[in-house]
Design a protein that fits this description.
By secondary structure, this protein is mainly α. It is built from five helices and two strands.
């Protein structure tokens, strides 16, 4: 598992008060008990943990499943934006 994926899973688990192993690649926000406001909070928490501000395009590019983000798509979008953020995230992606 990539370090970015582990970090994002940890942030989601902490912010939604879940066990990390319940978060699978196909988990959607609503299945995890989150709403659209929680999604914004999760983005901010991931940015804070990574010490960066992810580009808006990162989240516009996430493919939706049943009109919702999945954990797997969320991580993939963050990993794809590695070239646009500070060195700390780039080091995690290697």
């Amino acid at each position: 598992m990539s370090e970015v994926k582990e970090l994002v899973r940890s942030v989601i688990a902490k912010n939604l008060n879940l066990a990390w192993w319940t978060i699978t690649p196909n988990s959607t926000l609503s299945r995890l008990g989150a709403d659209s406001l929680d999604a914004i909070g999760l983005i901010m928490a991931v940015e804070l943990e990574l010490g960066c501000c992810l580009p808006q395009e990162t989240f516009n590019s996430i493919e939706l499943q049943d009109n919702e983000w999945t954990f797997g798509a969320f991580v993939e979008a963050i990993e794809k934006s590695v070239n646009h953020v500070p060195v700390r995230l780039q080091a995690l992606a290697e």
